[in-house]
Amino acid sequence: MTAVQSPPTSPAGAAVVGDGGRTVEKISVARLTRVELRKLADTRSGLWLLIAIGLAAAATAAIMLGAAPDEEQTFRNLFSFGLAPASVLLPVLGILSMTSEWSQRTALTTFTLTPARGRVVAAKLIAAVLIAIAATAAAALLSAGANLVAIGAGGDGSWDITADQAGRLLLNQVIFVLMGSAFGALLMNSPLAIVLYFAIPTAWSVLGQMVKWLRETAEWLDLNMTSLPLSEATMSSGQWARLGVAVAVWVAVPLVLGTVRVLRREVS
Amino acid sequence: MIAVENLSKRYGPHAAVDDVSFTCEPGTVTGFLGPNGAGKSTTMRMICGLTPPTAGTATVDGRPYRQIGNPGRRVGVLLDASAQHAGRTGREVLTLAALTMGVDKRRVGESLERVGLDKTAARRRVKAYSLGMRQRLGLAYALLGDPGVLILDEPANGLDPEGIFWMRGLLRDFADRGGTVLLSSHLLREVEAVADKLVVIGAGRVVAQGDKAELLAASGTVVRALDHEALEATLQRHGLTGTRTTDGGVVVQADAETIGRAAAGAGLVLLELRPADSGGLEQMFLSLTAGDPGREAVR
To answer: Using 50, 70 and 90 to split pLDDT, how confident is the model at A261?
Structure first.
């Protein structure tokens, strides 16, 4: 490492006089979203999570083509199955996006550059939704390729999928990535948030199935159960209502509490 | 321009910062001095809107920090060089900042060059950086938005002597071009060489502040005699108060003539009699902060 003795290249005091209002305007959420999207993939953990999702999606397609009965080898089945890895791993990306600010202590610089913390939280959520949309689109392309292979290999190969079905598959991704973000914002600690994100809903599912008097409550509050119809051919209004309640409990509540916590926490 | 007015921060019963007021003018470097745990970092975090104050206000260019829409273009901040994602490269850290501030990405390379991080260093992950390199990256980060104000917390930590010399030049130049610099340190020597003004803080309170020259002038005279004990006795007889330095001298709050006459009257052989300069300021700094050695790191 060598020291550079040359003077600064630009007049440092220039901003003092006539900065043309460039510092007054708030940083737009669109710009912050671009930054947050970049932050999702510019570390090893983030990049490898995305790569793992891609590889796992390819693996599910291969399993379907190799093991599923011919009549089940349709685009919709391949698509729905191919999204499974993303629905498990994308939320981890959402968690890390929130928690790494604290565990890596980048909150100090992030909130120094953008004191409007609510905008940063909003940008992180938008980035999480965008990455869910991108993952769903990528899975659709991959599944289309797999379906062509299925046709060649004598599978059913039907292309039937309604906008409603595709939309619900996308919504499933969005719900879980937002739930991850919410847990991350609330818990502010990567390992804790990841463990609890997986453990609490699973423990609740197990309890709901084992304890008789909990079963009826679980039908409304178990997100693992209420989100299942999203991947099925049709979904009834009753099922939508149950999903809505579960999402309110597992996504909306932690998200609101987590945002309040991020806004209030002292950064040091 | 930074204006801090009656800023206080309490954590339960403990006052981390207690009624601190000072201003930093354009064109000057203000040294913010105090031992570890004196409240320097807490004060700086309050100026930057990261810690809500219990009482008081702080403004940068007449505006509370959090109300500056895009503060990176106005204030360059380095509060903790280690607070960067260990998995990002130096270049990526600056690129993210440039995107956030809306600064041309070409400035990233310029900034890295300006702080002496070459292309190889820029491609490495922050994890592999030494503290000195992190400080340089932090300085590049602070300078990236071409700000008029710099707020730096212990930026010389981990820099080698050459790096400290380089940083002084950079800050001096920044101030000479009309910029405002607030620079903290727990080492007097480090700040003394570059600061125009000093604010000394101990246990959360400002214990001294003013122009460096004035503070130095007020710091007394160093006197050293062959017979040390006789000198102390003589000084005491004449009512001259002094504090011992580490090398056997005494810093006396009186001018050289008064001390010289007292010594001559007692027939003492003097080895040294001179204005105390920084040595005196160091004595002041030590005595100001000597009262509470256990404060460190307790918050």
So the answer is: very high
Which residues numbered 89-108 in B keep a CB inside 8 Å of some CB on A?
92, 95-97, 99-102
Q: What are phi and psi of A7, to 5 degrees?
A: -70, 165
Judging contacts by C-beta atoms under 8 Å, the chain A residues touching residue B178 are: 11-13, 16-17
Sheet containing strand B197-202, edge to edge, reads B75-78, B149-153, B180-185, B29-33, B197-202, B205-211
For chains A and B, CB pairs below 8 A equal 166
Whole-number Cα distances in Å, A261 to A182, A258, B239: 11, 5, 60
Strands B75-78 and B242-244 turn out to be: unpaired
Residue B184 has pLDDT above 90, yes or no: yes
| Residue B149 parent element (H or E) | strand B149-153
Where does chain A have alpha helices with state H? 29-41, 44-67, 75-82, 84-103, 107-113, 117-152, 163-187, 190-210, 212-221, 223-226, 237-247, 253-264
Unique residue bearing structure tokens 């009309």: B178
Q: Per-residue confidence at B218, pLDDT binned at 50, 70, 90?
A: low
What pLDDT sits at residue B240?
Answer: 83
Non-local CB neighbours of A149 within 8 Å, separated by 6+ positions: A65
Q: Rg of chain B's alpha carbons, rounded to an integer?
A: 22
How would you label A67-91 residue by residue, b for 16+ Cβ within 10 Å and e otherwise? ebeeeebbbbbbbbbbbebbbebbb
- Tens of pLDDT along A162-193? 999 999 999 999 999 999 999 999 999 999 99
Whether the CB-CB separation of A64 and A224 falls below 8 Å is answered with no
Q: Pick from B24, B76, B293, B20: which is nearest to B180 by CA?
A: B24
- pLDDT band at A54, cuts 50/70/90? very high
For tokens 């930590």, what's the residue?
B157
Residue of B nearest to A101 (CA): B85
The pLDDT of residue A22 is 55
The pairing of strands B197-202 and B29-33 is parallel
**Type of residue numbered A241:** A
**Pick from A159, A163, A129, A130: nearest CA to A143:** A159
pLDDT at residue number B287: 67
For the packed helices A44-67 and A117-152, what is the interaxial angle rounded to 10 degrees? 30
Predicted local distance difference test score (pLDDT) of residue B109: 94
